[in-house]
UniProtKB/TrEMBL annotation:
Residues 8-68 form the HTH tetR-type domain. Keywords: DNA-binding, Repressor, Transcription, Transcription regulation. InterPro entries: BetI_C, DNA-bd_HTH_TetR-type_CS, Homeodomain-like_sf, HTH-type_TetR-like_transc_reg, HTH_TetR, Tet_transcr_reg_TetR-rel_C_sf, Tscrpt_rep_BetI. It holds the Pfam family TetR_N. PANTHER family: HTH-TYPE TRANSCRIPTIONAL REGULATOR BETI (PTHR30055:SF234), HTH-TYPE TRANSCRIPTIONAL REGULATOR RUTR (PTHR30055). It comes from the Bacteria. It comes from Erwinia tasmaniensis (strain DSM 17950 / CFBP 7177 / CIP 109463 / NCPPB 4357 / Et1/99). PROSITE patterns: HTH_TETR_1, HTH_TETR_2. GO terms for molecular function: DNA-binding transcription factor activity; transcription cis-regulatory region binding. Pathway: Amine and polyamine biosynthesis; betaine biosynthesis via choline pathway [regulation]. Repressor involved in choline regulation of the bet genes. One of its GO terms (biological process) is glycine betaine biosynthetic process from choline. This is HTH-type transcriptional regulator BetI. Signal peptide: none annotated.
Amino acid sequence: MPKIGMKAIRQAQLINATLTVIDRVGLANASLALIAKEAGVSTGIVSHYFGDKNGLLEACMMQILSDLYTALRQQRRKAGPGAEDQVRAIIDGNFDVSQIAAPVLKTWLVFWAESLYQPNLNRLQRINDRRLYSNLAAQYRRALPIRQAREAASSMAALLDGLWLRLTLAPQPMEQGLEQARMLCYKNLALWLNSAPTP
C-alpha cells in the first residue's frame, strides 16, 4: 500500500529532476531514463505519474507558472494600491527569484518553443499571455484612456518577454542583467504614465 502523500513527493521530485536534466542536456536529450536516474527512481515511476515526456514537461510548466503566480500575488500584496505601484509589482513578480534559476530559465525557453507544436503547452502559454496582458491593462486603465492602456499593456508584456529572452541567452549570469532589466521596465512604465492626458 502506498504511503500517504507519496504521490505529491514523487511528482515534485520528478519535476525537479526534469528541470535539472533539461538544464544539463536540453529537451531533445532529456530522456525518461535520464530523468528517472536523476530522481533516483525507475523509468516506470515516471511513466506512471506523467505518461510520457510531454506530460512531464507540461507538469514542469504548470509548477513554474504556479510559482510565478505566487510571486506576483506576493509582490502585489506588498505594493501600494496605486496603478504605478501595482505595475511595478507585476514587473518585480516576473523577475522573482523563483523564475531566475538556470533550470527554470532554460525550461521557459523549451516551453515557448514546444508550445508551437503541443496543444496542451500552447494552451498554458495562451493563458499566461492573457493573464499578464489583462493584469497590466487593468492597472494602466486606472491612469490612461482605454486605447493607451491597451497599448501600454502590450508594450510592457513584449518588453518583459524580450528581456527574459535576452537575459536567458546572455553569456553573463542572470543576476548581472536583472537590475538593468527592471530599470528598463520601470522607464517604460514612466513613459506611458507621463503620456496620460491631463484632467
